[in-house]
Structures are given as structure tokens and as C-alpha cells.
Design brief:
Layout lengths: L2 H16 L4 E2 L2 E2 L6 H5 L3 H6 L3 H6 L8 H14 L10 E5 L9 H6 L6 E5 L9 H28 L11 E5 L2 E5 L4 H6 L2 H4 L2 E3 L10 H15 L10 H27 L2 E6 L5 H12 L4 E4 L17 E4 L2 H9 L7 E3 L16 H7 L7 E6 L6 H10 L6 E6 L8 H4 L3 E3 L5 H7 L2 E4 L3 H8 L4 E4 L17 E2 L2 H13 L4 H15 L6 H13 L1
Amino acid sequence: MNIYEQNYWSVYVNFLEDFQDLKYKGYSIPYLCHYASLIRSNKRLVAKLHNKKFFQSLKVKVYDSKEVQEKFNDFINAHKKERKVKTTGKVVIHDVYNLLRFPIQIKRNLFTKDNSLFLIESTKSKPKNKQENKQENKQKIKQRNKKSKQRYKQSKKISRPQKRRKKQKIKVSNGIKVKVKARSRSTLVNSNTNHASHHKTFNSYLPSFDQSTIKRMQIKATRIINTFPRNHLYHDKLFKKRFFAQISKIISRIEECNGLFEQEDVSAVIVPSTHYPESRTLVIVAAEKGIPTICMQHGIISSEFGYLPKIADVDGVYGQFEVDWFKSKGIDENGLSIIGHPRFDFLNRPPSMKKTDVIKALSLHPNKKNILVIVRGNNQLGMWKTFLDHIPFKKEANIIIRDFTTKPHSLTKSHPFTFSSRHIRLYDLIKASDVVVSYCSTVALEAMIAGKPVFIMNEQIPGYVGYYDGLKDLFHSSPATLSKTVNEYIKSKKNHKKYSEIKREFLAYAYPGGKLSNVRLMKLIRRLTS
């Protein structure tokens, strides 16, 4: 580990030990917190994480990330009960922060209302005061009146004879033709309730409990903080605000989980991450009830801070890379299963939008190569500008900039020869492209699975695990070199065979072929529930 990683894990373990007595119903709250968000905005602390002297000043020092996993193993084992086999129970699937990304076809075909239950977070907003309600109502009335006027104006433009009548369908019943009224929009919406019936909010399982418990726990946390007068992190206003919010969230989630497992017959739990208090608490309470848990890998392991510690019984990973990496962190191979991801199963299916339609929608030149550039906000912005400044194939290719939002990226303004990906779906963009250039993202892996040539902009980040190092000549830290390599690939077939072989070797290790991911997942569920 480098000094940043040693400092990060050391500060984390100090936090666990300092607040370990902050317990609710036997669960130590700091072990259920999302620690990264508690310190992320503290620039003073983040700067110290790069300092060797800071490491020496810490009470508890971590020299290897295995020590962190061992500490969490003790916590997990203290709550783990003998596994209960429930072949008839429902599989609870909880999506946290939209990380699950199961395709709708998978949800409909494999996880029905008879065998599963999708749990979502409540969207209920905090209560508004009278003044806010009054203003909101005025605004709604104003918008409603505006829409009414627009509809009236529109109806005046169309004379009555021109208005299209709803076409009536003809249905044959016992040899008699019967006219059937077209279904209204409300009827169509209601027809989907059968599918939606196995989607419930977590707070629908929240029993009545003493809410003052949360306040008392926050007061206890304050007392602990006051025993560390020189710890500037614990006394930071934003740290306390976020910590107290997480305490409230964790206590409520413990109660919700207890309500869930009392009311529902649950055979297994699936989450996309155990990094956050919402899902980590669910997994730990499930362990207390003897219910097996699965954590689906939601993206490549670009940094170890997002994937350690491992909490669930089994982590469904992409490939052998993750198995070897987790084992190097002291994790038992029995707690790992190569699943891939169900959404990747769709990469080799026909696109929802044809290449010609993508070209037309983005106003691309039909006879040019399509270069898809994957960026994330303003991360590496300077490097991407350099990459675009150095490309000699501006006139020979359509360069499409794709950010994680649908808004045009600033690069499309600073470099007008590029195109915004707009609203086009990611997989349609990948399939319509000839080359994909990306930062160290999951999209690069997806493009390779789809059979596309991929080149990656490398920038070392804290906790980087070397995921894409095996790509060799396709992986560059210099934007100018990356631009040159992509240019050579487009203009000459000299290195095509070599690059294809590098990609093939990488995928064999990172994402092996064979059975579909959804088949592997269902097999794992059966193994854990029988």
C-alpha cells in the first residue's frame, strides 16, 4: 500500500474503534456508515492523507488492507446466524443509488411477483411549512391555467372535422364481431400494476418505534466526539451533519429490515453494493436472520475504496481478475462467484436504434468513422482537451463526446468539430461506433465485450488496483500518445491483429464468455437457497 492508502484505512479503523460503543439493538453503527462521504469534503484531512508524518500521529495504524477486512469479518461473524434454507421464499432485491442496473427484461422474466420483491427507497420529501405549501399551490394553479390556455389555442387551430377519432378495434367473440373501445391512458397505466405489485418502498415495513431513540443516539455520538477535543475531523460541522444523518438512516433501516423479515418469507437478498448504509444494514440484518446475501458487482474495480470491505456472503464478480484481487485482500474464494452482469448479456443483441438512425439523429457524416469518446464530467478535462488538440483525423472521423448526463459536454463547445451524444442510449452508441476511447471506466469493458476496439486514457487515482494494466499499448497516460495511437489504428491495419489479441487476452481474464450472466446468477441463487 502507498501512504495515501495506509492513511485512509488507518483513519477509517480509528473511526470504527472510537465509536464502536455507539450501538443500536446490538449493531455497532460506525460499521454500517458510509465513511468516504463523511470525510470527502474535508480538504484539510484529505491533504493529510498524502503525508507520511500524519501516519505516525495516528493511534491505530493499518499497514495492509487485509487488516480492515479482518476487522469487518469479526463484525460480520458476530451477527451471522446459521443459514436457513427457504426454497419457497422470495428473493429481495434492493437497488441503492441506481447501481443495480438490471435490464427490464430480466426483471420481468426472471424475477416475478411470485418469486421476488424489489425494494426501493422512499421518494417522500420532507414536510413543507404553510408558506411553502401556499407558494407551491399558487405555482401549480398558474401552470395549470397556462396549459389550459395552450390547449384551447391548439383546439381552435384544428376544426372539428379535422380532429382524428380514436380508431375502434374489432374483436370476434363467438363468431360475432364486437366493437372494442380504445383503452384510455389511465387504463394502460393500470395494466402495468401487476408487474409493479412486487415493488415496495422500504418505509412501508417501518414499524412504530420510539423516534427519540435517534436523538439519544446522536447525543451519545456528541459525547464521544467531545472526548476527542483535538480531532478536527470529528468537530467538523459537515462531518457531524452527515454522521448524524447516517445514524438516523441506519436506525430506521434496522427497524425497516426487522419489519420486512417479520412480514415477508425471504429466501435471499441481492444488492448492487454494500458500500452504503442503506444496503449494508440490510445485508447485516439478513445475516442475523440466517438469510443468504449476494452483492452484484456494479462496475469495474477502479479503486479499492469502493469495494472493500466485502460484506455479503457471496460477491457476484465479473471475472478472474476480481477473484484474484479479493483473494489478495484475504477474502475466501468461497465468498466469490464469477457471474458477470445481466445487463452485459444485451451487448451482443441487436441495438434498439440502428446505426443509420444514430448517424441521422446526431447529424454525423455517414461516410466517416465514428469515434466514441467517454468522459465523466470535468474529470481529466485538461487531458481530454490535449487529446482532442492532437488528433490529426478531425476531418476523417465523427468524434462523439459521451458524458454520464445527456447534456452537451463543455468539450463540444471548446472543440466545435465534436458531436454531443445527446439522448442516445449508451449501448446504441457503442454499437454505432468504430472505435471507443475512454477513461478507466466500466464502459471501456462493455465496449470490448461488444467487440469494439478500445483505447484508454490512464490517470492514477488513490486506491487504483491496476484493472486495465493488461491492455498494454491500448492504455496510455499521455493524451498526445493516446491520440497518436488512435490515429494509427484508424489509418492503418498494421496493428489491428496485435490489438485484437491484447483485447482477447484481457477479456479471457476480466470477463470470460460461456453461459449468460442471468443463467449464472439464477444458478447461484438456487445454490444458496437449497
